[in-house]
## 1
Amino acid sequence: GAGVSQTPSNKVTEKGKYVELRCDPISGHTALYWYRQSLGQGPEFLIYFQGTGAADDSGLPNDRFFAVRPEGSVSTLKIQRTERGDSAVYLCASSLGTSGSRQFFGPGTRLTVL
Amino acid sequence: DQQVKQNSPSLSVQEGRISILNCDYTNSMFDYFLWYKKYPAEGPTFLISISSIKDKNEDGRFTVFLNKSAKHLSLHIVPSQPGDSAVYFCAVQGRDDKIIFGKGTRLHILP
């Protein structure tokens, strides 16, 4: 596929569990972004990768959240000790990485913490 | 405090008429102003943008206007079509390329 893909599309977990959310960016896109969209809100920035390194992680809410992109392509967002307030749609986007380049979004992963 | 405000949670417009979606922002340092469209169960899709050095950008039925002195952005859709029914997010993008979104406006196009 030509677009950004995210797996799983839905994830239901129990409070306190660990989850991993995966993002496959568009081939050739060096920049990758994670956003979180809570109910009734717009997407909120979490973290941005340029290549393999996290260029800006200022949006991560606390140290339970961590993301990696070891080979500069696929990224995994990891959430430890999940809380009910983590329930949201987690969106991934990728871009060519040049200033002002358009970000293309995936369909998101809907995380529900019971 | 919200940097991007969309004060209308929803808007209903008759098919064929003009839809006008509004947005206000608080910071003058942004380079690009964007509109994204979102259907249920899909990610946001880029619709149109405008650079901070311009005051109007047009793409087919979609026109974005930027009033820097008022820190106001608007999206005009004319004529409105049923497929335009979606949530529209106003957003700003600075030199760090982070996008800051508003809360969105749900547009309903009535037959």
## 2
Amino acid sequence: EVQLVESGGGLVKPGGSLRLSCAASGFTFSSYSMNWVRQAPGKGLEWVSYISSSSRYIYYADSVKGRFTISRDNAKNSLYLQMNSLRAEDTAVYYCARDTGYGGNSIFDYWGQGTLVTVSS
Amino acid sequence: QSVLTQPPSVSAAPGQKVTISCSGSSSNIGNNYVSWYQQLPGTAPKLLIYDNEKRPSGIPDRFSGSKSGTSATLGITGLQTGDEADYYCGTWDSSLSVVFGGGTKLTVL
């Protein structure tokens, strides 16, 4: 059974940092691209970042470029999101999602349960 | 303001049919496949449709997808109260990003 379990969320002050983790199991993690998607309270889905299976290709939403860093450790079946210079507008539930798409296609076939990040003084 | 445009809400009676539209441009829907996601209250999104019209294993054929030009449509027939959820379209964009619609809240009256 495919499982994605996020952790690392919490309350942080504006300007602070946080590192999210996503533990994957039930599939060959190193064969899949992964993404982070967030959802602000009461709002819609917003894609945050993409990383290819080998980490060769990495993309970010403009809203987080230069502040967030996506990475993965295939030996540990884990995905990460380092978030720096956090702002109030970064407050959201952060989901990791497996991407089974190809050739520029994006298909998020499995999602974690999400971890809440709250940026507030 | 989302890159893809969806109606904020749709509603229909149990047993009826509803469609949800998703409008984009040549930089996203026009040249890429569309996926649809269902998010039940308080839960993570779930893949409903991929490659414009394909259903993952376990998704009933009451759910269908189509695409024409720069727009896509999700159809749901035989509506059930359990279908009440938020529905999102998503696709790849030429700006090297994934874009989602703003979401559509389905109410089964």
